[in-house]
Amino acid sequence: MKKSIAATATILLFCSVASALDDTPENRSMQADRYVAAMPAKEMMNSFVGQAVPKDAPAQQREGLLEQIKCVDAVSLEKAMKEAMTKDFTADELKALADFYGSPAGKSAMKKHYAYLADLMPAIMTEMKKAQVKWMQARMKTMPAEAGDPAQEGEPKHQVPAPQK
Predict the structure, then answer these.
(1) Within a domain: 157
(2) Average per-residue pLDDT in the chain?
(3) Residue 79 belongs to a domain
(4) What's the domain range around 114?
(5) In sequence order, what DSSP letters do the residues of 59-97 get, joined into one string?
(6) What percent of the chain has a predicted confidence (pLDDT) above 90?
(7) Tens digits of per-residue pLDDT, 9-19?
(8) pTM for this one?
(9) Within the chain, what is the greatest distance between any pair of CA atoms?
(10) How open is the CA angle 132-135-139, to the nearest 5 degrees?
């Protein structure tokens, strides 16, 4: 039984290593192209406006954003996407992204992604406000007492010289 488990683990390890792409600029570029084909810039932008703009936003605001998106230079944006992706991700990571976003499940998930972010944003903002309060409280505890503070014993640390006459 132990030999069977060891053999299976070895085969799985070999398969995962064997299927790894060489992390070359060419492979990164090829996988980035696959990603952009699965996630075109115009489609991403339209999805963003369709889902991120509040449902109760005035129709004029929604229409204005849709009109602005028509003016987006998709070629330029996709070029920037590819440059950033090939800089930040390995060939295998880009392949995984392209595989996922090119799949039916990935396409479906992406259509819901901005709605998810819009739903999550109030919780993120609430937590950030709480964190800011905690940070400020901790910071106030570490700041030196003000000169002349009655709670401070002895001479103030920072004395302002008297004006000279």
Answers:
(1) no
(2) 81
(3) yes
(4) 24-137
(5) HHHHHHHHHHHHTS-HHHHHHHHHHHHHHHS-HHHHHHH
(6) 44
(7) 555 555 444 56
(8) 0.62
(9) 96
(10) 135
